[in-house]
Amino acid sequence: MSEQKTETILLAHGSGGRLTSGLIDRLLLPRFNNPRLAPLADAAVVDLKEASWAFTTDAYVIKPLFFPGGDIGKLAVCGTINDLAVMGAAPMYLSCGLIMEEGLTMDTLERVVCSMGQTARLAGVEVVTGDTKVVGRGEADGLFIHMSGLGMVKEGISLGQEKIRVGDKVLINGTIGDHGIAVLSAREKLHFETAIQSDAAPLHSLIAGMLEVSDQIKIMRDPTRGGLATTLNELVRGMNFGLTLEEEALPVSKEILTLCRLIGFDPLYVANEGKVVVIAAREDADLLLKTMRSHPQGRESRIIGEVTSGPAGRVLLHTATGGKRLVDTLAADQLPRIC
Amino acid sequence: MSEQKTETILLAHGSGGRLTSGLIDRLLLPRFNNPRLAPLADAAVVDLKEASWAFTTDAYVIKPLFFPGGDIGKLAVCGTINDLAVMGAAPMYLSCGLIMEEGLTMDTLERVVCSMGQTARLAGVEVVTGDTKVVGRGEADGLFIHMSGLGMVKEGISLGQEKIRVGDKVLINGTIGDHGIAVLSAREKLHFETAIQSDAAPLHSLIAGMLEVSDQIKIMRDPTRGGLATTLNELVRGMNFGLTLEEEALPVSKEILTLCRLIGFDPLYVANEGKVVVIAAREDADLLLKTMRSHPQGRESRIIGEVTSGPAGRVLLHTATGGKRLVDTLAADQLPRIC
């Protein structure tokens, strides 16, 4: 009986020895090729100009590794880029660490690494340093990625909660809930009639355009885990102002809305991976909206609410039916392992 | 019946919601407290002077989490610091990401985080950004830490394989094999008569002192996973020179030597976490040795070998009995999950 042998990750791939270097030379280096990574030293040396730099890190444990619209590799690069971009930084250098479970197929790893390389290349960022570790079967779930990033904050850019004023507008660059529901559909092998795709995308070009036209952006965040509701609550927590959202203005696709009702989720709490929420001075809101809509990542941008004097520290929703309800932070997530 | 309830990590601690912020506010912030971390934004903003910066990342998956001489938290901080230090950089900023398995006890997490905070403080580095993720029971093994680091490379410091010349000396700052054997003893619950401790320690102060007295250091590496043999092989691989070690000069404690013989390990392949191997010009070797020995992390420093014209790309050992043997890279590690 002949059988095709599937190449998998062995514990020895994490030994630091011959198999480790083989993995790095054959699989990783070609995808991330750049002069700073090539020496494979203990750290990459990068030349940083005199400036403020944003430094971020995230672990990616999403389940499953592949989902409509992306995979853990694309997600890691986009997530890291976006964490830098919302700080007003131009993303430049990434690090990539892999924790692999023994038995992970080489094919899966290769697809993820290709996706990471391609996403980074398209976004104009470089993976300059990395690490690989292997743990035994049952000691991890396939593949975890951790990625850190460095981005330069342009002179004159200064963002922060303390800049927020009553009357400021809240904007978002498109529909909410797509990532979470796409991952859920892949995880539970749900077959929806309509194809729901994760919104995973790098937002640094959209955000750079916005920072170019307005110096009245107060703060930006990417509403990932916990969704828009959690992100907005973080922005008002402990502050002497509140925030009101207009339900009718919230961009949610019909498919997401229907599915959320079906499974009992609130799209306000569902994760996004290609969205930025912006608080900006009222007078610049329309200009920013126009700028955002002219960008491929912002076609469906909307003004969704504003900063209010009260209730301080809370997020209120003006419902479509004319009521008001408090949008609180959830104690637990609706969907674990969403990013 | 009364029962003491042990607080453990729940999936909800990874939700990004209320439990996540509780964990960060109560457990993490107090340990890493500094003005760059405090805003808890998506990235830390750090001011980097015009200079070359070293940027490194590592995943820590060591098993067990606690071992004689350290724990995964201390290991992560020391390992990251050392990866920067061997690049000739002064470590400054760290990021910390945690992947926690549901059910990890809060007490364990707290001990690890305290240890990280203390090691960082003593070493004069700051944890400025971080991330927490939780995966289900059986989807990880207790706790994995990933840490990235940034360190400034002083003007005029230039290290690299291409600077190595035949006749250069190889130095190390003390005994080899301690970390690996200490972890093995904890993992297998071996009870040795003598207390073997991991050598986990930050080496940036030792290395800074060496760089101060000599501009003839060609390259430095920390011989962690795969041990001294693997590190030295990486340094000569593909080069037109070789390297010869003197077995009699190799610092190995009597306890490690005995135990290694007993279990069939070669200390040359056992991981270290507080050692640096240095290649330096012959004329500066004695000065460097003296400088290293005057530092607490270098009391047992030795000159252990030299760079030779051949066999090119290989590491040779002059044995104590007058023979020669090739010190190759192992295909697989003797001890998985050692760091």
From TrEMBL, chains A, B:
Domain PurM-like N-terminal, chain residue ranges per copy: 42-153
Residue span, PurM-like C-terminal domain: 165-315
Any single GO BP term: protein maturation
Pfam families noted in UniProt: AIRS, AIRS_C
CDD domains: HypE
Family of this protein: Belongs to the HypE family.
NCBIfam families on file: hypE
Protein name: Hydrogenase expression/formation protein HypE
Organism annotation: Desulforamulus ruminis (strain ATCC 23193 / DSM 2154 / NCIMB 8452 / DL)
